[in-house]
Design a protein that fits this description.
By secondary structure, the protein is α/β, with parallel strands linked by helices. The chain has a single domain (2-278), classed as TIM Barrel, CATH 3.20.20.70. It has eleven helices and eleven strands. β4, α5 (87-96) and β5 form a beta-alpha-beta unit. α2 (28-41) packs across α11 (256-278). The longest helix has 23 residues, at 256-278. The relative contact order is 0.17.
Length: 287
């Protein structure tokens, strides 16, 4: 259908109380699995990559691959930079053709975070590209960055309002109890905090670290302005577990066109279940 900005997709989700899945695509096979599932359910999606994935795939190759896929798909697809680690990384992705950018200055002091985010917003806005930013720190592992969940800092709702107003961002990622990677136990999400943030911040909210969050918690988050939900770890785990199972059972397998298929199917099942949970099936063309 189209290679689009995430702004239209997420603003519609925010307005109509559903959310859009932002699925990490680490290779061609996961990309194909995600897109085929979204097409089956006629759901808009974001394909996102971290700087580590960009380094692995190559920047131009990543953009070309997702853009070509989107233009042949029956759904709108945005390409999002997740956890942009510097102004330079954000600019490279912006000028290469990413249709939304996250700049992550959450590890910086408050004023420095604002300054970094504002620089990216000032560069991206004239190009019509929306920007996401994070306040507070989300625990777990993302690329090579690891933050102990006990040391993660929750977002102060009052400060969140100031942050959004001063940066001019389009989407806001607060820390309210989720974590990147696999959870050691069920996460204790602070919905009271999320509700306060929603009351003060009138832009789409992003949930990071959604892999492993219970279904009911995911659905509950939609009541508080969450319009974008990130999934990565669950996709990687499903892919490699099914690939490993197939190769163990078929030790002479040598054709990737065959042994990748069950791994892709495992990813597709998860993507479909997440899209259903988020309430985004049959949203294509509905405005």
């Amino acid at each position: 259908m189209a290679f689009v900005s995430s702004k239209e997709i997420l603003n519609d989700a925010y307005k109509n109380n559903y959310a859009v899945g932002a699925f990490a695509a680490h290779n061609l096979e996961i990309l194909k699995a995600v897109v085929s599932s979204a097409e089956k359910l006629q759901a808009p999606i974001l394909i996102q990559t971290t700087p580590g994935t960009v380094k692995y795939l190559g920047l131009e190759r990543t953009v070309s691959l997702v853009k070509a896929t989107a233009e042949k798909a029956s759904i709108p697809i945005a390409l999002h930079l997740d956890h942009g680690d510097s102004f330079e990384t954000a600019m490279k992705c912006l000028h290469a053709g990413y249709t939304s950018i996250m700049i992550d200055g959450s590890h910086l002091p408050f004023e420095e975070n604002i300054k970094l985010v504002r620089r990216v917003v000032d560069a991206a806005k004239p190009m019509g590209v929306p920007v996401e930013a994070e306040l507070g720190t989300i625990g777990g592992v993302e690329d090579d960055l690891e933050i102990d969940e006990a040391n993660a800092l929750l977002t102060d709702p009052t400060v969140a309002k100031e942050f959004v107003e001063q940066t001019g961002i389009d989407f806001f990622a607060p820390a309210f109890g989720t974590a990147h990677g696999l959870y050691k136990e069920e996460p204790k999400l602070r919905f009271d905090l999320l509700e306060e943030i929603r009351e003060r911040v009138d832009i789409p909210i992003v949930m990071h670290g959604a892999s492993g969050v219970p279904d009911e918690s995911l659905k509950r988050a939609l009541q508080y302005g969450v319009a974008k939900v990130n999934f990565s770890t669950e996709l990687k785990v499903a892919f490699v577990e099914e690939l490993r199972r197939y190769l163990i059972e078929n030790p002479k397998a040598e054709d990737p066109r065959k042994y990748f298929v069950p791994a892709m199917e495992a990813v597709s099942k998860i993507v479909e279940s997440k899209i259903e949970l988020l309430g985004s099936p049959s949203r294509v063309g509905v405005r």
